[in-house]
Amino acid sequence: MRPAPLNISKFINELTTLRFKYDFEFWAYLTARIQDKSTKRVIPFKLNKPQRKTLAKLEKMRCEGAPIRAIILKARQWGGSTLVQIYMGWIQVIHKKNWHSVIIADVEDQARNIRSMYSRFAKEYPAIFDKVEFVPFEGSAKNRMIVGRNCIVGVGSAQKPENLRSFDFAMCHLSEVGSFKTTLQRSPEDLVQSTRAAIPDVPYSLEVLESTAKGVGNFFHREWLTAIEGKSSYTPIFIPWFEIPRYQKKIRSYTQFIKDHFEDEYVLFLWGSGATLEGINWYLSFKIGKNYDDWRMNSEFPSTAQEAFSSSDMRVFSLKYVLRARMNCTAPEFIGEISAKSQKGKEAFERIEFMPNSKGALYVWSKPDKTTNVSDRYVISVDIGGRTHKADYSIIKVIDRYWMMYGGEPEVVATWRGHLDQDLVAWKAAQIAHWYNKGLLIIESNSLDKDAETEGTHFLTILDEIVLYYPNIYARTDPEKVRQGLPIKYGFQTTVSTKPMVIDILNAAIRDDAYIEKDSRACDEMDTYEIKPDGSMGAVSGCHDDIVMATAIGLWACFKYLPLPKYIGYSQSSLSKKIISEASI
Prior knowledge:
Layout: H1 8-20, H2 24-31, E1 33-35, E2 42-44, H3 49-63, E3 68-74, H4 80-95, E4 101-105, H5 108-124, E5 134-136, E6 144-146, E7 151-157, E8 171-175, H6 188-198, E9 206-211, H7 219-228, E10 235-239, H8 254-261, H9 265-273, H10 277-290, H11 294-300, H12 305-308, H13 319-326, E11 334-339, E12 353-356, E13 362-364, E14 374-375, E15 378-383, E16 394-400, E17 411-418, H14 422-435, E18 440-444, H15 462-466, H16 479-483, H17 498-511, H18 520-527, E19 529-531, E20 537-539, H19 546-561, E21 566-567, H20 572-584
Parallel strand pairs: 3-9, 3-10, 4-7, 4-8, 8-9, 15-18
Antiparallel strand pairs: 1-2, 5-6, 6-7, 11-12, 11-13, 13-17, 14-21, 15-16, 16-17, 19-20
């Protein structure tokens, strides 16, 4: 009996249909149609670079069987909403029945515009693979259904969230969340909280928040920071302008272009970040053509997430300086906590050691050098925050001044950042200072001072307790007044005069490359540190400046308070040999 003739077309169709389940990009190109932004023609949906980058993050979660949760910070015009919407359509058409979805924008018309992509997708879906009918659901103007899949696709708005309360959906696409407004009656938090409660934490469930940045301190910015810090289940995805294919401009002479522009630090930064020469040419030409200043370009066409969230042109630290400081930032060599026999008292300085812990709050780039005896080498500066997770962070920052002996720069070697009772933070700082060769401990004491400002009265403070066991603590009292009998006041006090002073020192240090920053979180805070309308300085709403203050106080001690470090216990001949040896390194 002869075998039946092979039906090649049927075999290919079945193989293609099978591949649809595993290869979104393959399915999208063969079945989905979109309108090209430049030519306005309807073309196959061929993913570009930022879309593939985003898809990889979404697919990682799906393939791991995890709920799909992402927050996308984007530059303009790369098709992020299109990708999310068609990806949701893939799940509904290929993978899941009864898997309802909703699109939420600031106003309902914006959500309808996004859903129109789905309407085109259904209309253009090739009949050879299947037929996708997209019809009104039970006569509703807002909700539509995919026939045969029983999947409802609804729309909603941040301005009228009450329409969403009874909606049973498994996927939610929130578009331009940065535009969602807070009023007396409603807030973005309330809306997103209700959608999160409705979406089950199961495989193939999806929630994507996407937006261009709309300033800082708003709901989207807070959600982004939470995701970046790993404190939410949302995967942060940033799309810089130079990854978007349309932002390119031809160059007549590459040699001349490089000669004209590659002495500019920001151009070098863009090149090092992955921008092409054609992309840089577009950026510079667009900036001149639109008469945009740096802040406007950062806001509209960000190269980094920090640029995207530039709140205003009133930033204290120049973006150019901060970008240069970031070049030295690296992941810590060690993460853990400091451990001792006790948290407080004399025993707090017994059996001090570093305990590795991947979830620890102490980041260490260089452990203390126990091989040389150098005076005034380490500065341990502290900014004390609060105990709860909603309070400011407490920061303990360690700066190594060793290379200042040879005309070099002080270097950050450790940072502790966390929430703890204020007295325990002070004791922990003293333990870290003891570990770092008994370095100078300088604590910003505004939150610790309990001195009554009345003559002859002095209450015991935390630092007065610690100094009994750890004497190398900065005291702000004038030595002459101490000799006259006035009590010693320990700790650095931040005032309307001392705060600008230390911030100016930090600003000059990053401008002149006068210190080496290793902690990228310090640069993050510099990017959101601004001059307020009343002339004061501080973090923008929703951000922190704790590391900035600890760094500024530490550098003040490095440059303005302590003498240069020097070797102790070396003869002149052995010291000369050591200096020559280290200089050769």
